[in-house]
Write a sequence for this structure.
């Protein structure tokens, strides 16, 4: 048996399962299929294996209760990459998901950084906005 140990790397992308603020539910299988096609292109074009773990969660903020997916990435030891390459590829995939699934924003969490990619400054009308705070 072989044992390989590398420095940990974690990236978590959170994406909503509704189109914009239209309350139109998306099928998570469409997102998974999109990710798989993206992964296939990365493997074919760059020999990069970007493994993802996908789980369901719910974002709650004021009147907003929206189903989301958490897409988690690690530096899989079998296909180890420099962290900068992983971050670049995760952000590229995140941007493509943001545009393809008409999201206003997505968030990526790293151990050392939190990134919001924003397509629109709109705020979901279900979130109470206090203007005289």
């Amino acid at each position: 048996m072989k044992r390989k140990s590398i420095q940990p790397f974690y990236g978590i992308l959170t994406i909503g399962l509704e189109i914009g603020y239209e309350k139109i539910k998306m099928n998570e299988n469409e997102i998974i299929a999109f990710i798989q096609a993206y992964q296939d292109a990365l493997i074919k074009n760059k020999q990069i294996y970007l493994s993802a773990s996908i789980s369901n969660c719910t974002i709650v903020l004021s009147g907003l209760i929206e189903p989301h997916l958490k897409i988690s990435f690690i530096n899989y030891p079998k296909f180890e990459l420099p962290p900068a390459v992983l971050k670049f590829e995760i952000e590229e995939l995140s941007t493509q998901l943001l545009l393809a699934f008409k999201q206003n924003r997505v968030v990526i969490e790293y151990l050392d950084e939190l990134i919001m990619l924003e397509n629109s400054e709109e705020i979901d009308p279900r979130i109470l906005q206090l203007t005289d705070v």
Q: What stands out?
A: The chain has one domain: 10-118.
